[in-house]
Write a structure and sequence with these properties.
The complex is a heterodimer.
Chain A (H helix, E strand, L loop, with lengths): L2 H11 L30 E5 L2 E8 L9 E8 L6 E2 L11 E5 L4 E5 L8 E6 L7 E5 L10 E3 L5 E4 L5 E4 L2 H5 L4 E4 L1 H6 L1 H6 L1 E9 L5 E7 L6 E6 L2 E4 L13 E9 L2 E8 L2 E7 L4 E3 L3 E2 L3 E6 L5 E5 L4 E4 L7 E2 L7 E6 L5 E7 L2 E8 L2 E9 L9
Antiparallel strand pairs in A: 1-2, 2-3, 3-4, 5-6, 6-7, 7-8, 9-10, 10-11, 11-12, 13-14, 14-15, 15-16, 17-18, 18-19, 19-20, 19-21, 22-23, 23-24, 24-25, 26-27, 27-28, 28-29
Chain B lengths: L12 H38 L8 E4 L2 E4 L14 H4 L6 H21 L4 H15 L3 H16 L1 H22 L3 H21 L19 H12 L9 H23 L9 E2 L2 E2 L1 H10 L5 H16 L1 H21 L2 H21 L16 H15 L15 H6 L3 H10 L2 H25 L6 H7 L3 E6 L4 E3 L5 E3 L7 E7 L6 H16 L6 E7 L7 H11 L7 E4 L3 H10 L4 E2 L8 E2 L2 E5 L4 E7 L7 H21 L1
Parallel strand pairs in B: 8-9, 9-10
Antiparallel strand pairs in B: 1-2, 3-4, 5-14, 6-7, 8-13, 11-12, 13-14
The chains are: A mainly beta, B alpha+beta.
């Protein structure tokens, strides 16, 4: 057992694992079967009556246990951002947010030896948090969690199951029940006609009807479904004729004040679609490379952060895609501000730099040093 | 390879001290055993010489061989049953070379195994890297052996020392006859174990195989040598054995030459696109080994030479191997003689310049392949040309009837008295092997790890005799639990965060394993965890944690929680600090296990940081906790 052999073995035993393009912990919910075009990162932002929230990963080490997800808030009417990540849980697995008019619910994706997903709810712009529990593995999608104003909640799990909690209290106490599974939905009539491959997002329609979006294997069909009294049916979102030959993937789904908004990938184009509860309006396409982050603002506005420093926004129903100036280096997410303005949140290790789009150019407005506890999850 | 590595540092002072202590302890026992054997032998001989029947010239039988009492004075005479095989001739020179050569090598290997890093470091520094490039089935097999070692590093480390020293001594002192052949068989058997589990089959299933770097594994030559020594001595009297050995080497060398010459394996280039070629990289890696400066300078110079003249160096190697192979296949003594001398020189050069002597750096376990290989083909040459003195006829061994006779007490005494010093020394060597093998066999049969791993992580526990602070909390089922309600039972207590992602689930598993280890005693022990998170502390979380860890069905498991003020009081009382950390970090708390006896007194406080949290350290903690629980039960 000479040292020579040992060293020869060492030399041959080294290796490395490739990372996903998104770099945010890959893997969609529902055990993807087909060919997923895009992995949607968890970095996003959303707007509630409390303010604008942004989620991004920070850290600086290649080790996943030194990457910590952070939640920032810019309270309504405020100019500055604050770090308000809920305490008490290691969030290396990622954060998923769902907002209602008055509260924000954060789901912690499990990491390392944790197998379930703690929740945290705030009604005061992140100053205080109330714990909650989803005794399951929350999906790795920014749209995996949805809450309606009454407190009813939906959660898309990593295995493609959808669970529901009837009230905020039930969600806090871990009293969730199964609504459906990817397999069951795929076996339903609309699931079969879509050739459902995986589930991507959950939301509510205005009348508290659960809405689920997924990726269809059948070209030209979109996978947005409604649970009407225990029966799943298509939400009626159809692709423009130009995309009848393309498979469609729903990258995002959210409720708006007047209905719902969805972000669709068809071929190499992205389209926004808005529903007013009765019919859908689909935007013109925008060509995409890799999607770095995406999110929704008020009134159905949608933004995209793309590779190469590109960013696109669309204001809402009937709007058209507008390119933003090239975003600052390190931009991890965008966040809509008042009056159609945007902030770009750029990350370097534990430093967050906020850039604000002012008069057609990005201006640095704030710098936050986040007290990351390196090694605390090792 | 999940169980292979304990994750502890090979230099861990607790493990190094325990290893030294075990070696010293077993060494003392070995010394006493040797002295005892010598005393028995000397006493028996004295008794035989002073009894009336033991007059000079009196004939007796011992082990079926006739001896005279006066010859018992002469240590060179062997009276054991194996003596009959000698037939009075000299031992074949080839056999003698293998016996002494590999005896010395085994003793050297045993001494190398006694290096301080070996106990904790062998699996991670030697076995695991060697197996890493082998196929999955090899890794799976090797992992089994590595796991046994990492669960019982002290016993395994010490056992290996004594087994190898014992085999070496046995080969050297065994001389000839059955004892000696048995030593050869033991050498082959142990060598096979080392070759498979220590060398991952010498890396023959891994890519990059090369004669220069030790293929097919140095210990395989020990196995072959042991097998040759174990052959009846008659086999050594004809040149046939030598021809067979040399033919084997001939095929081996030609095969290695082909492998060395095979294109695309990186041996023809000293550098490839500015990066070192296979051989250059190998030599360069050896330069960094801890060793005398002149050696590293020599290797450094040679690596530069190989980098610049890779093709020429490999051409020389290929030609030499091929020529040696062809000459060995011819089995023409005169030609083979020169080839052997040249082969020895070439092996020594490779041993120094490529293999860097093999045993340096603190985790070298043997001198690699060149020395044993040279010994083996040299023995093959000697067997090819037996001297006339070696060609004396053989006689039959003792019959079973005679052997049974020898078991009668008087006969046994006679046999001991008439045994040669060589035989007694061989028995002593076997005793040394047994001394190492017995505790190792016992450890291998025990699926729980040695508690020394947990002690190494925690640096020992603190024995106390203090009243445990009282508490009044609620368990996962909503039932009120106080310290008083647990009176009469031993309580193993710890503090766990139900949403912790790292240590707490591991500590919970250690407690679960502790319950299994306690067996029937489990009913007298309560396993109690107290929530260590000020936010995520409701029963919903303790229940979710229990489901996650499979603790929901453990009857004596209680996961207690309460209000923040109730929990804070308990944390303070038991010296546990719980802090919410910012920016997405989990709550911080100290890992602690506390043993409370049936009277409500704290008896032991153990740091419960799971350390590397490997299967062996987890098992070790469980064993340690179960031992403390048993001790507390004994006091209750």
């Amino acid at each position: 057992m000479g040292l020579a052999l040992a060293c020869a073995g060492l030399a041959a035993g080294c290796g490395s694992r490739s990372q996903t393009a998104a770099g945010s912990g890959a893997g969609h919910s529902g055990a993807a079967l087909g060919a997923p075009a895009v992995t949607v990162p968890l970095s996003t932002s959303l707007v509630t009556s409390q303010g604008t929230w942004a989620i991004t990963v920070m850290g600086g080490s290649a080790a996943s246990e030194d990457n910590f997800w952070q939640l920032f808030v810019r309270p309504t009417g405020a100019e500055q951002w604050s770090e308000v990540t809920p305490p008490g849980v290691a969030d290396n697995g990622g954060l998923v947010a769902a907002g209602t008019g008055t509260s924000l619910v954060i789901g912690f994706r499990p990491s390392q030896d944790l197998a379930f997903s703690p929740l945290a709810t705030s009604i005061d712009a992140g100053r205080n948090w109330t714990p909650g529990l989803l005794d399951a593995d929350l999906g790795n999608d920014p749209g995996a969690l949805a809450v309606d104003p009454s407190g009813q909640a939906l959660a898309l799990l990593q295995d493609g199951t959808i669970q529901t909690a009837p009230t905020a209290g039930a969600a806090a106490a871990g009293q969730w029940s199964e609504l459906t599974t990817r397999q069951a939905l795929a076996a339903s009539a609309p699931g079969r006609s879509c050739g459902l491959q995986r589930l991507d997002a959950v939301s509510f329609r205005l009348n508290k009807t659960p809405m689920v979006a997924g990726s269809c294997g059948r070209p030209g069909v979109t996978g947005v479904f409604l649970d009407t009294s225990g029966t799943w049916q298509s939400a009626g979102l159809t692709l423009p004729a130009a995309y009848r030959g393309d498979q469609a993937q729903v990258l995002g789904l959210a409720a708006t004040s007047g209905g719902n908004v969805a972000l669709l990938l068809a071929g190499d184009s992205l389209l926004a679609a808005w529903s007013n509860g009765t019919h859908w309006t689909v935007s013109a396409p925008v060509a995409v490379g890799a999607v770095r982050a995406s999110g929704f603002g008020t009134g159905g506005s949608t933004w995209l952060l793309l590779s190469g420093g590109r960013a696109e926004t669309i204001s809402g129903t009937g709007g058209s895609w507008q390119a933003l100036p090239a975003v600052p280096a390190g931009t991890a997410t965008l966040a809509p501000g008042p009056g159609g303005s945007y902030d770009a949140l750029a990350v370097a290790g534990s430093k967050l730099t906020v850039w604000r789009l002012t008069r057609g150019a990005w201006a640095q407005v704030q710098r936050i040093t986040v007290p990351i506890e390196y090694g605390s999850s090792s | 390879m999940p169980g292979m590595n304990s994750g502890l540092s090979p230099d861990d002072p607790t493990l190094v001290a325990a290893f030294r202590s075990a070696l010293l302890h077993q060494g003392t026992i070995a010394f006493i055993a040797v002295i005892f054997l010598w005393l028995v032998w000397a006493t028996a001989r004295t008794w035989r010489l002073t009894t009336p029947s033991a007059t000079p010239g009196t004939r007796g039988t011992a082990g079926g061989a006739e001896v005279t009492a006066d010859t018992a004075e002469a240590d060179t005479v062997e009276a054991d049953a194996g003596q009959s095989e000698r037939g009075g001739s000299r031992e074949a020179r080839g056999r003698w070379l293998l016996r002494i050569g590999f005896g010395v090598l085994w003793i050297l290997d045993g001494i190398l195994q006694a290096q301080p890093k070996m106990a904790a470091g062998l699996p991670s520094l030697v076995i695991e890297p060697t197996a890493a490039s082998s196929p999955a089935w090899v890794q799976h097999l090797v992992n089994w052996g590595g796991t046994v070692w990492s669960y019982h590093p002290i016993q395994a480390g010490a056992a290996t020392v004594w087994i190898q020293v014992g085999i070496g001594a046995w080969l050297i002192v065994g001389g000839r006859g059955r004892w000696s052949r048995l030593a050869g068989a033991a050498s082959a058997g142990w060598g096979l174990i080392v070759w498979i589990f220590g060398e991952s089959f010498g890396g023959i299933f891994a890519p990059g195989l090369s004669w220069l770097t030790g293929a097919p594994g140095g210990v395989l030559f020990y196995v072959a040598a042991g097998a040759l020594v174990a052959l009846p001595e008659g086999a050594w009297r004809s040149p046939r054995l030598g021809r067979l050995v040399l033919a084997g080497f001939g095929i081996f060398f030609i095969g290695m030459a082909v492998l060395q010459a095979w294109p695309g394996r990186g041996f023809w280039q000293g550098t490839v696109h500015g990066r070192p070629g296979s051989l250059t990289a190998m030599v360069q890696s050896m330069v960094s080994t801890s060793q005398p400066r002149f050696l590293s300078a020599l290797l450094s110079a040679f690596s530069s030479f190989v980098a610049g003249h890779g093709f020429a160096v490999n051409l020389v190697v290929v030609i030499v191997l091929a020529v040696l192979g062809v000459i060995f296949l011819t089995a023409r003594p005169r030609l083979v003689r020169y080839a052997v001398w040249f082969g020895i020189t070439f092996c020594l050069a490779d041993w120094v310049l490529v293999q860097d002597l093999g045993f340096l750096g603190g985790v070298g376990t043997d001198p690699n392949s060149m020395i044993p290989m040279a010994l083996l083909f040299s023995a093959g040459y000697l067997a090819l040309t037996p001297t006339p003195e070696e060609s004396v006829g053989d006689t039959a061994g003792a019959g079973w009837g005679q052997r049974l006779q020898a078991l009668r007490p008087r006969m046994l005494g006679g046999m001991v008295a008439s045994a040669s010093a060589r035989s007694v020394a061989a028995v002593a060597a076997v005793a040394v092997i047994v001394l190492g093998a017995a505790p190792m066999a016992s450890a291998a049969a025990n699926h729980s790890a040695d508690p020394i791993l947990a002690l190494a992580i925690e640096g020992g526990s603190t024995s106390l005799d203090l009243p445990a602070p009282g508490f009044s909390l609620t368990n996962q089922d909503g039932r009120a639990v106080t310290l008083a309600s647990l009176h009469g039972k031993v309580v193993l207590m710890t503090f766990l965060d139900p949403v912790c992602t790292t240590d707490c689930p591991i500590i919970a598993q250690e407690f679960k394993q502790t319950a299994e280890l306690l067996g029937a005693k489990d009913k007298d022990v309560d396993l109690v965890a107290i929530v260590a998170n000020p936010t995520y502390r409701s029963a919903a979380f303790t229940q979710a944690f229990d489901r996650q860890e499979g603790l929901a069905g453990v009857p004596n498991w209680q996961y207690l929680t309460g209000s923040v003020s109730q929990l804070s009081a308990v944390w303070r009382g038991y010296g546990v600090s719980v802090t919410d950390l910012p920016a997405g970090a989990m709550s911080a708390h100290n890992d602690l296990a506390i043993v409370i006896d049936g009277a409500g007194n704290i008896r032991e406080e153990v740091g419960a940081d799971p350390g590397p949290a490997t299967t062996s350290t987890q098992s070790s903690f469980s064993v340690l906790l179960s031992q403390y629980a048993r001790q507390a039960l004994g006091r209750s």
